[in-house]
Write a structure and sequence with these properties.
171 residues; alpha+beta
Length: 171
């Protein structure tokens, strides 16, 4: 009689991805009420999603940028009414984070993103109008900052450059 040959069982440990950089792409999507407490929870969730892919300083920068943007939406876009929804999307790729925020509050004043008169020196916060220093920080820390209003919705996007993932894995 002939003995049957059984195929080998697959290894119990997962195999590494053939494209390690693809395994590190992370996406975060969250919609939440336009309230200060919901913003705080969204900030915690967003930073927690990417904390292993950033330095502590980068995580602090992400939290600062998002806090400025989201709190501005709550305070100025909805007037602390809480009667709106904010959507936040963040994608981590090999080069950094791409972030987008959308809401249906009032339009963003054009002066917030006016880059024409951007002074390379950090301004004295007391010399700026209310909210001016927050937008200075956002413009200073983010790249590719853009805004568009369409069909009653505000769409704000930016990039936050980070060291390439490969450098983090090697280091």
């Amino acid at each position: 009689m002939r003995e049957r040959v059984r195929p080998k069982s697959p290894p119990s440990t997962p195999r590494p991805s053939p494209h390690p950089q693809q395994a590190e792409v992370r996406v975060f999507n969250l919609s939440f009420a336009a309230t200060p407490i919901a913003v705080r929870d969204a900030l915690r969730a967003a930073v927690a999603r990417f904390i292993r892919l950033m330095t502590e300083e980068e995580a602090g920068t992400l939290e600062l940028i998002l806090a400025e943007i989201l709190n501005n939406i709550v305070e100025h876009g909805y007037g602390d009414s809480g009667k709106g929804t904010i959507s936040l999307s963040i994608a981590r790729d090999r080069k950094g984070l791409t972030c987008s925020v959308s809401d249906d509050g009032v339009a963003l004043p054009p002066a917030c993103l006016d880059l024409e008169d951007r002074d390379p020196e950090r301004p004295d916060p007391t010399s700026l109008p209310e909210g001016g220093f927050g937008w200075f920080l956002i413009r200073d820390l983010a790249t590719d900052l853009g805004y568009h209003r369409e069909e009653g919705r505000n769409l704000l996007a930016f990039r936050m450059p980070l060291d390439p993932i490969e450098m983090r894995q090697a280091g």
